[in-house]
């Protein structure tokens, strides 16, 4: 095999792997961004240095968010001051809270329990302490 | 490499000189000094994170935020850029066979802007993080630190534009007429690529800084949402400059490996053409991928796909460099002297960092890794793993030529082993921490996740090993430049002189006469 052939084979293999990564993430991301029509809206507001939540029925919560197992929820994420990033690592919910913008994320928890909520974008003095918790409860109704 | 030894001169003669090697030495001394200053900050950060809790080492989060901000700024702009410029200053005119840089006075001016910028960054000690995202940097960051950060970065930006213009003119217009551009050694090619990239990219950030300054003064509201602006605009301007800037930091290190690897493999380079092609490709494609830093800012699906393709497109070119290195080493009689150890270690870590980068650019995976310690581990594998290893290898490589003395191969090996092991332990572990969900830029972490504590401790021990390795490095640099054995200047490593191919060409203008 000549010099050039070896290099072109190598480049072709790299490109093939990249195509696989690209196509696969296109498919997954397309599926992830497809919000179910019946998702209940929860408004999430980030401000230095806590999260507050407003459910569709008007209930408000600070730092701790209660949701029901088996339901789909759509987060509308705002910020009142600087950039934050709303993150529930265990449910791969992650979207920046940008002042002046409304961003979206959704999830449908299928396991009851308590999970951490955190801020994943540097937002100043107490960024490390901008934590909350998500409580997924069994739906009794 | 023809670097003629000079008689010892008073320091002020070197400081006021405009000769390219003298300016190169100034850059090197400046850059290596700040490597150790930034390194001390890194040790403070890692030691503080050894235990969860508030006052482990740093007593408050305000100070901690300032420390990691200045650590980042120092390592990028006061270490990586100056050292690349220094080595470029020393080697590029020799490689293109010209008597000096094209504009010697401009060269000295560009260097002397660096201490001013450095003073502003260190005396200000801002807490904005090195990215200084709006609107935090505008409405909440305390002054005068944030304003000093803006002016410091402004000065460093102008300095890097000036030195880039100098490199481009030196390489393109001042090269020897018998030397076609495609035959110019690959290290000079890497400097040419990054200089062109700087000239295209840097003005964008310079303008963003001015907008940030007027926003802070309340005269405008470009990025301030409470005055009708948009913070996302800042992110676009910032990353349009600083994604290409990542390659600006990286490519000189790759160029240095191209100097080291053929010589210590005692074989000609596998392919000059493919190296040039890969540099040019990276230089162009580097501008197509800035949006992958912003997937989670509410970017729509199509834009994300475009930036993902742009990011993935840079990978084959990086892969061509790796292939070129491996094919050069293949079947060579390799001499694992210190420069070669660091170059080979750098290639291994470059490959690991690149593989992690592919995962970051894949949209769904980015939502897991973005803003976590995964990213910290990933970019440090580039910054220490590739750039650090390339630079340190090159510094060992130039050591006998600059000082006329030989470093100790034994201590250099100890440096290499500690630094390589430490890098792997520190930053591979941080990838895992990221997958566990730990956010970056945190002063403290909760005690209830035991895996966070364990992984942080493993990572910190690795960081101490890197710190120890650099203590060895500093001590050897100082000791062996004064007390080392005299080097055989024709062939310091005994690998056979004929492998010093294109640089050995004698300078047609008669070498040093420009003092």
Brief description of this entry?
Chain A has one helix spanning 3-32; strands at residues 40-47, 50-54, 60-62, 64-68, 73-79, 84-88, 93-97, 103-107, 113-119, 131-137. Chain A is of the alpha+beta class. Chain A has a five-stranded mixed beta sheet, with no helix packed on it.
Structure report:
The complex is a heterodimer of chains A (141) and B (515). By secondary structure, chain A is an alpha+beta fold. A five-stranded mixed beta sheet of chain A has the order 3-2-1-5-8, with no helix packed on it. Chain A has a five-stranded mixed beta sheet with strand order 4-10-9-6-7, with no helix packed on it. The model of chain A has no long low-confidence stretch (mean pLDDT 92). Chain A contains one helix and ten strands; from the N terminus they run αββββββββββ. Chain A is extended and about 70 Å long. Chain B starts with 10 loop residues before the first helix and ends in a 32-residue tail after the last helix. In chain B, helix 7 runs antiparallel to helix 8, helix 7 runs parallel beside helix 9 and helix 14 packs antiparallel against helix 15. The longest helix of chain B has 35 residues. Chain B has one domain: Cytochrome c oxidase-like, subunit I domain (Cytochrome C Oxidase, Chain A). The N terminus and C terminus of chain B are likely disordered. Chain B contains 16 helices and no strands. At the A-B interface, helix 1, strand 7 and strand 9 of A face helix 3, helix 5, helix 10, helix 11 and helix 12 of B.
